[in-house]
Amino acid sequence: MPLPVVAIIGRPNVGKSTLFNRLVGKRLALVDDRPGVTRDRREGEARLFDLTFTIMDTAGFEDEDPHTLPGRMRAQTEAAVRDADAALFLVDARAGITPLDEEIGRWLRGEDTPVIVAANKAEGRGGEAGRLEAFALGLGEPIALSAEHGEGLADLFESLRPYVEREEEETVEEDEEDPSRPLHIAIVGRPNAGKSTLVNTMLGEERMITGPEAGITRDSIKLDWEWKGRGVHLVDTAGLRKRAKVEDKLEKLSAMDTRRAIDMAEVVVLLLDATRGLEAQDLRIADQVIEEGRGLVIALNKWDVADHASSLFNGVKAALQEGLSQLKDVPLLTVSAKTGKGIDQLLGAAFEIRDSWSRRVTTGELNRWFEKAVDNNPPPAPGGRRIKLRYITQVKTRPPTFVVFGTRVDQLPESYRRYLLNSMRRDLKLGAVPLRMTMRAPKNPYDANKD
């Protein structure tokens, strides 16, 4: 089934090609300060959060004889709009509304294609006057946008959503939905925690150099492996010491390489040394993994030689609950890199975390949960003025990321946002993976004095 089509229209040099490049994620369209660079219609597959659609860049709309080159370009633009599911009418917020903008507006009002007006070049507050002026075009509330700086994309998402989201669930990247794809897993921890020994035991060969000296591994070593018929992309990393103790340039580069490995991983295994227990540096590493939005599994290594095993496990678990308050119930497992005990459980937990990390909640299920959560615990009314939460949408996976739309959301306390996240994790069974939630309010100047 073809993707919905959105055509960008506007007079020359308002930033149509810049926005096109922003939405397709590549510099496919030529961009220059001079007007009239774009002549033919150019199409590309656009991604805006979780919306996927065909975006069409068009020539600048000019009032010229149909037989001239500008006239033929205008005919191409008109045809593009008539074939589109929605038209995105771009105006220059800093220049204000021109007579040609007004002519384009009159023509669009006579067409059947839905129109969204976007005031581009509105970075900062400099374009607000031009945005308000665009109300006079009679095509609804304009949104503020900066194609060059990527500002206003959440408002653009909200405006486009009714016209293109019908394809949303059918156009999720196949790679994200395929449970058979290789698991990208990075093993991190302090020096001498046994990371390379664990990798060697997993592979069944002495692939990594090991020894009693700390810091043998310097580069992040990437290895392709198979566990029970499932592909695993395994990365062994250099040990991470407390930053203040890192003085050697090579060790600094190794630490940067490890952090890049965390960025590229789907799930990170934080390996602890059971003979030393949980240390502050372990919590710092775990916090970095969560901050990067990666799935996290914590493994207590050297369990075969640990003293007072039961009390040690309970003590580490309690310390993690307190030290990682932003993400409760992170899996804590025991392993022996030397004997291989616990490795199957570790890999099984990593695949489960990856499944939760990649999960997409359907729009219907998500908003049924949202209505119930808000009904059970309505948001506060600071100063006697209600905060209205209207709906929620999942904008991406890996990690699951959500946007809540409503009014006065800037006054919503952090405790209420935590309530929503905790309820979501529990009720929707999203597991112990990082979740992202942002709040967005429509920018309508006429709402300023309304409840």
UniProtKB/TrEMBL annotation:
Xref: CDD domains: EngA1, EngA2
EngA-type G domain ranges (all copies): 4-168, 183-358
Keyword GTP-binding tagged: yes
Entry-linked Pfam families: KH_dom-like, MMR_HSR1
Binding site for GTP 2: 189-196, 236-240, 301-304
SUPFAM superfamilies: P-loop containing nucleoside triphosphate hydrolases
Binding annotation for GTP 1: 10-17, 57-61, 120-123
Alphabetized PANTHER family for the sequence: GTPASE DER (PTHR43834:SF6)
Subunit composition and interactions: Associates with the 50S ribosomal subunit.
Function: GTPase that plays an essential role in the late steps of ribosome biogenesis.
Name this polypeptide is given: GTPase Der
Organism whose genome encodes this protein: Sphingomonas alba
Taxonomic lineage of the native organism: Bacteria, Pseudomonadati, Pseudomonadota, Alphaproteobacteria, Sphingomonadales
Gene symbol of the encoding locus: der
